[in-house]
Amino acid sequence: MSRSPRRALAALCAATALALTTPLAAATPAAATTTASTHYSGTLQDGATWIADKPARWNGVLLVFSHGFGALTAANAPSDAVRDRLLAEGYALAGSSYDPNGSAWALNSAERDQFATITAFGDTAGRPTHVVSVGLSMGGLVNAQIARDGAGRIDGALNLCGLVAGGVDLEDYQLDAEYALAWFFDRADLPNLVNLSDPSAASALAHRLSTAVDAAQQTPAGRARISLAAAYLNQSAWAPGQAPPAPADYADQEYQQYQWLQQGLLYFIVPGRYAVEQSAGGNPSSTKGVDYTDLLNKSWHADEVRALYAAAGLDLKADTAALTAHADISGSATARANLNASSTVTSLGIPMLSLHTTSDQLVPVEQENAYAARIRAAGDNRLLRQAFVARQGHCNFTTAEIVAGLHALEQRLVTGAWSDVATPESLQERATALDLGGAAFVDWKPSRLSGVR
To answer: In this predicted structure, what is the pLDDT of residue 34?
Structure first.
């Protein structure tokens, strides 16, 4: 039986040695075998570039990779180490930049560009016998779109730390947290949280909020209120270089949540909002009408928040009631509809295996809960399997974990049944046997995602 995050914290303490495995970019042995391959590149109709690598001994399988948020530069693998291994195993790799003229939140063009890349690869390098789509972070949301629409063109999908709850949920819960931080620590910026004018304004806002959080961390009252905002943010309580906090060590849980914030989390979230607003045509999110007491009560961090409020001698109900009463941000219905159309996925058309670290500061593992619920509601849950790695950090997988996930998915495609290929025990055994940086698959059940309207 899968364990809840609260009960599983204790089990994670025993797995810390595995969990502190080196990050993705350094996850394979130093001695990598260089595989003879041919490199291809081209330009798509919208100006997007695409690249591909095809090994001399191609197995006929094309892996089309959807990259994450950031520079609109073509990529065809999660890392150099993963690329080297997959080429050595005979896979061809391809991927596009997405439309370079659009927002970094490239959901308006990315799926189209990825399908066009598959076509361009076939016309240039030879038609594959099978196609598997792979997505990382925001690219995991692109990959979810591909997996929804790709029946007949795509055989299966492997997702890595995917932003599968979609853009609407992302913007909603992040705004809930930013609003709480501004209300408690930086009220002058309450009018500045949405409709950001440019990237520099977004970065400046992130700096002011981060500075206010640093000051608040110095007092019991500040720490209690940081924990409340962190609950709204679905913020993990296990930070880099730390052992997992004990289930009832609420002070340590808040400290580790603060560590994520101190390490620059808001400098990613706030400018990211600017990019999403540019893509959607305005602010898609509202605080007006949100019950912030109810929102906390549904969070698995609620016990932590209550304990820290009690220790600080603060009235939690008064604070959440004040947040509810003063919430006055109204989003654009048009922007919300645009973002929902471009960035929310509610069904599956092909088998997908989705991998996620249990402590992901940028795309909380709770997103997997929201996605699975939507896939169940669509009647497509037979196609979806999710697996979890006990480690801190966004997309912090070893090469072994990624390759094992791909091999497990391929077994599902060959046999037509998942059987036990996606269980943590099976994936752990498969990954460990590869000797490519270790593995830490764990039995895990993500909690409900806070902020879903």
So the answer is: 74
